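call fold(seq) -> tokens
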Amino acid sequence: MKCLGEHWGLEFTPEEIAAARARNGLLSLELELSRACNLRCIYCYASSGIAQQDEMQLGEILDVVDQAVTLGARKIIVLGGGEPMLYPHLFTVIDHILSLSVAVDLFTNGMLITPAKAKALYDRSVTISVKMNSRTPAVQDYLAGHNGAYEAINLGLRNLIAAGYPDKDHILGVETIICRQNYDELPDLWRWARRLAIIPYVEMMTLQGRAKEHPDLEVPIERIQDLFERLARIDAQEFDNRWLPHPPLAASQCARHEYSCTVTATGEVNPCPGVNIAVGNIREQTLAEIIQKSSVIHDLRNIRTTIKGRCNRCDFGEYCYGCRGHAYQVTGDYLAEDPLCWLDQAR
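ret:
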């Protein structure tokens, strides 16, 4: 039986995270390129669609990458903010990151991944996460706000698979937001991904951006708990993996606030996409200065001691601190207990 262990789901070791925190450094950086997008996903945290005024120029983006690497970043996560495959200098950014011996993760809706681009990504060993919320065409198109999204996303996936994804050096995942429309099919989507060696990233939705305009998306916490427990049973019984079901990610956990941050398309620095508090701007201060001086960043880097409420008393607090995005978007307090968590043994 494979057990994911005491620190399952962490992309860096506790020792590496502690060292980064102690030096006010980074292990990863989430980087937006532009808010331009070819979809209008009704749950989009950033309400993406049209490029913002005064977005960073290519030179500024490359400089942010350099600063992050100087601070110790070993991975740059390219979010796009919108759709990164629309960004005209995407491969220039990717090649610059790789030239610094730093890994690249790319989040994309996959619609613009042609065979040539799939090969280019494979040749660079870029880790890919495709935003895929349903294997039912009508549901996928509805959630994406675009007719034909299902066919285009699946064509992109087929192109990636034809290029060689996934294998041990080329990770492919699908990112799925839990909502009422796709809820019933998620166990089968999980199995489909696992059987193809695709990593399923099934996560809870944060109530921000367009999601606030669509209350029909919301799933009661009791049903989310049931889903996570079902997915855990599927993994244990069918794929020989064991993990503890808790929000916000199935079979994983989020500890990014201890070693990462997000730079938006206009240069603002946020703790993460969910805690969208501007703590500085790289056009006014260096990334090092922002991280060192921000009280919000320091609160979150010491989240194990600063967290409040049930999360502060939780039996699982050694390795979980809930979703800070949920806490902030629902309560306005990024240190509040996660209001959407069902782990309350220490109550």
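The chain has 13 helices and eleven strands.
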